[in-house]
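It is worth pausing here to work through a concrete case rather than discussing structure prediction in the abstract. The textbook approach is simple: state the sequence, then state the predicted structure, then interpret. We follow exactly that order.
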Amino acid sequence: QVQLEESGGGVVQPGGSLRLSCAASGSISSIPSMGWYRQAPGKQRELVARFESDGTPTYADSVKGRFTISRNNAKNTVNLQMNSLKPEDTAVYYCNALVITTTQFHHDYWGQGTQITVSS
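Step two, the predicted structure:
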């Protein structure tokens, strides 16, 4: 089994910053791709930022220049530094990882989600 544990959510004023962290643990052989998605009330889940299998980061247009994704492959962690937060960034943020397990099983895993609220 594989678990994704997220931390760092909370309430912040517009223009503020937050940092999300996600750690994967369990029967992991490798993690080709890892990143963050979000879902606002009444909307579909959408990509925020992720590292593709070639190591290239991809960002949603709405967060480019404000959010920065980073990764520690040795520790199976991914972080999301969020600056200049806007009310429209309010959502539940989910960590996602495409994992190859020690038994060579390929599976998409999700964290439980962490709430980010941007409000004055």
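Step three, interpretation. The two ends are 40 Å apart (CA to CA). DSSP finds no helices and eleven strands in the chain.
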